[in-house]
Amino acid sequence: MFTDSTITDKELFIRISAGDEEAFRQIFHTYNKIIFPFILSIVKSDSISREILQELFLKLWVNRHKLSSIENPGGWIHTMAANSTYSYLRK
Predict the structure, then answer these.
(1) Burial class (CB in 10 A: 0-12, 13-18, 19+), 60
(2) Which of 14, 15, 34, 50 sits at a 20 to 30 Å CA gap from 91?
(3) What string of DSSP letters covers 5-32?
(4) pTM, to two decimals
(5) Secondary structure tally for the chain: helices H, strands E
């Protein structure tokens, strides 16, 4: 696991785009703590929130080749979370 706190999310996204699973784990563990409560506050269900979060990070990994062009990874993840959550509510 990365222990260097100077590694930016942008650098982690670049590493993920190259297939670095450890960088993906670090992004997941960092943003899971932030995004899960956000999703939960909207859908009011622990299990559904976890499902949305899992799908969000699955999409991130599947589309990892696009991540190196993302300038604001935190904002991008938040936008993805909001879009996924509201998409779930529309269903």
Answers:
(1) buried
(2) 34
(3) TT--HHHHHHHHHTT-HHHHHHHHHHHH
(4) 0.87
(5) 4, 0
